[in-house]
Amino acid sequence: MLPRVRLLLLALSALVLSVLADYGPRDSVVVLTDKNFEKEVLQSPDYWLVEFYAPWCGHCKQLEPEYKAAAKKLKKHARLGVVDATVHQQLAHKYQIKGYPTIKEFGAKKKRPQDYRGGRTTREIVQYVKNSAEAKKLGVSGANVATLEYDKVHAFVNKDLPSAIFFGSPKKMATR
């Protein structure tokens, strides 16, 4: 009798935990499926971080609020998505997902995503995206931000002659 009770409690615990891992339409995180992955990620000009997770995974649950907060902060710079790898097993197999959570970086070479090698806090995820070479290749704003010194701009603009300021990437300016 005791082993059955333990098994039942274990099953109920797994069910409760699976319900807690919940990404929804109110989040800045895009829920990706077998049906929308191609269009949303691979055909998109955007930079993506995609988390492959399992609803029962404790580490995935710990990452969830951090990932949601990072998605919100990066909303204008990059897209963050999630794939329930227990449901969308073809995607998990295609991208060789062996454990959870696994985050892949889909940059300029969408067909060959890179493994995410950053931390698991909101700050670390945001920094990773802003410093990512793949993000920079796609022109992610925030990745090439320079500090503009007010006093120098103010002095330039207040001259007696007409003036203009060009805002752009040094790399893009050099190739024109």
From TrEMBL:
Q: Which GO terms describe its cellular component?
A: endoplasmic reticulum lumen
Which keywords describe this protein according to UniProt? Disulfide bond, Endoplasmic reticulum, Isomerase, Redox-active center, Repeat, Signal
Molecular-function annotations in GO = protein disulfide isomerase activity; protein-disulfide reductase activity
> Start and end of every Thioredoxin domain?
21-134
Q: What is its EC number?
A: 5.3.4.1
Q: Which residues form the signal peptide?
A: 1-21
Q: Which reaction does it catalyse?
A: Catalyzes the rearrangement of -S-S- bonds in proteins
Cross-referenced InterPro entries: PDI_thioredoxin-like_dom, Thioredoxin-like_sf, Thioredoxin_CS, Thioredoxin_domain
Q: Which PROSITE patterns match?
A: THIOREDOXIN_1, THIOREDOXIN_2
Name the GO terms of the biological process aspect: response to endoplasmic reticulum stress
Q: Which Pfam families match?
A: Thioredoxin (PF00085)
- Disulfide bond as a keyword of this entry, yes or no, is yes
Q: Which family does it belong to?
A: Belongs to the protein disulfide isomerase family.
> What name appears for this protein in its UniProt entry?
protein disulfide-isomerase
The species this protein belongs to is Phytophthora rubi
The organism's lineage is: Eukaryota, Sar, Stramenopiles, Oomycota, Peronosporomycetes
